[in-house]
From TrEMBL:
Signal peptide: none
UniProtKB keywords: Cell membrane, Chemotaxis, Flagellar rotation, Membrane, Transmembrane, Transmembrane helix
Organism: marine metagenome
Protein name: Flagellar protein FliL
Subcellular location per the Swiss-Prot or TrEMBL entry: Cell membrane
Length: 175
């Protein structure tokens, strides 16, 4: 009888440890929020393919009043994509047009977030609609700014300027 109780206690302990590891694994932050990432900073990470750069754009942080007026929404939006190295306006930090592109994208992020209520932002279909809208507008803005900065660029190059692979919308409501 005692051996059976000890056996069940050991099995229970193993299950508890496995559950803790599972919760830790699934609850951790995605790889895009790196510990050494600074606020309002662009970060580039090299991929295994040397012709592309992973670009993390997370300047859109702040707080806005909820459209329903019942809370204040704190938000952060991250755009994660792969970009051909040297061919993208956002990687050219020394030029003034890169600042214009980042300002337009930040405005786009704030507009997309502020037009939705807190309940809508929790709906997966609404979030996917926001992602697709943002991808289209992000590509439009970057192509416009890139062609303005490089008027002699072949239009075929501009079509390959940006590939937004994922967007992360994080919003926090405070009553």
């Amino acid at each position: 009888m005692m051996k059976t109780i000890i056996f069940f206690a050991v099995v229970l302990l193993v299950f508890v440890i496995a559950a803790v590891f599972a919760v830790y694994y699934f609850a951790r932050e995605p790889i895009t929020s790196l510990p050494h990432q600074t606020e309002k900073a662009d970060q580039e990470l090299k991929l295994s393919d040397e012709n592309k750069t992973v670009y993390i754009f997370d300047e859109a942080r702040g707080n806005i009043a909820s459209p329903s007026g019942d809370s204040i929404r704190f938000f952060m939006v991250q755009a994660v994509g792969s970009i051909p190295t040297g061919k993208h306006i956002l990687t050219q930090k020394k030029e003034g047009s890169a600042k214009v592109a980042r300002a337009k994208i930040k405005d786009l992020m704030i507009t997309v977030i502020s037009n939705k209520t807190a309940i809508e932002l929790q709906n997966p279909l609404v979030r996917e609609e926001m992602r697709s809208h943002f991808r289209i507008e992000f590509n439009r803005i970057t192509r416009e700014e890139y062609s303005r900065a490089n008027p002699k660029t072949d239009p075929e190059d501009l079509l390959l300027a940006t590939y937004i692979e994922d967007l992360y919308f994080r919003t926090y409501n405070v009553q």
